[in-house]
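Review form for a predicted model. The reviewer records the input and the model, then writes brief findings.
Reviewer: anonymous (R2)
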Amino acid sequence: MIEFLSQTGIVLTVIFILLSLIYLLLLFILVVRILEQVRNRRERNFIKRWEEKIFEYLADDVSPIQVVKLFPKSSYKYLLQNLRSYLLTLKGNDLVKLKQLINETELYDYLLGQLKSFRKKKIVFGAYYLGLAEAENAKFILRKKLKHRSEYVFLTSALSLARINDTDSLDLIFFRASKFKNLSKDTLQSILLEFDESVCRSLMIGLHIETSPVFKSIIIATLRHFKYSPAAPHVLPVLLQEETIDIVLEALKYFGQIEYMEAAAAIRFYLLNPRSEIKVEAIKAALKIGEATLEDRIWSLIYDKDRNVKVSAAEASYKYSEHSREKLKQLAYSIPNTIESSIARMIISEKTIHLN
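Model under review:
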């Protein structure tokens, strides 16, 4: 009997503990939800007040210092987070005034303080918003952050320097990027595209000294993005000498955007390359150049074994000249029931629809 009561007491104790834990858990959840609601309410009130003051600032000739003084320092983080979408979308004088709101007020000192922090999260926050504001005076400390061991800090600092258009930091960006083994080509490419066209002069020089195939292909891709024609004499030797597939493809894509007659011989050579992806880009480059001796070679590629090459050659032939267009029409309707004639009919049909 005593043993039974003892066991019952243990069970009741366990049940009591479990019920207490459940109660505490429910109480914790309730407190968290209450705090979340309070935070959301404060944020909504802040946004309402912030938007009103910012719209007044953009509409009137009000000092940015006066506007920022309306907000306590404890709200600077909220203020910047709410400025973000406007900084990314507004243009013209409104954007200039928003940048002044950061660069000419205590917000600038606040962001510098974040940038000088030992905490990675704060450094990234400071670097990001100084970049959005194109804070010229911050570029020296941002360059120092390129040397940070965190890839996240490096990327944010590099992005901000690109937005400031600090082309002097370009060599350091490439050097530090080489230290991060998992850094993707697309990520570095997106950073370079944040510079304006003036970066092309530095990239053109770097093309001759860069040894990394990945970085070299990124440089050419950026020159292509800006359609920077002065680089054509510098890209052509790369196309003639390089064997790395990515570099060859990027160089061909570049000449697909830049009309450079001196590249005709190199394009003619690559039209005979065994790799289908290279032939496709060479066709596009040949069409851009429009050199007469390339026309027949493009036409012959309609009979290539690869379908993508066939389609690209047919599209180029339609655009190349009236002579090639008539040949394409003959192929489409006088020689039915072949892959080539089907492709020719498809191209002619597509072009006719667009013309109508």
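Findings: The mean pLDDT is 88.
Further findings: The CA atoms of residues 57 and 63 lie 8 Å apart.
Recommendation: see findings above.
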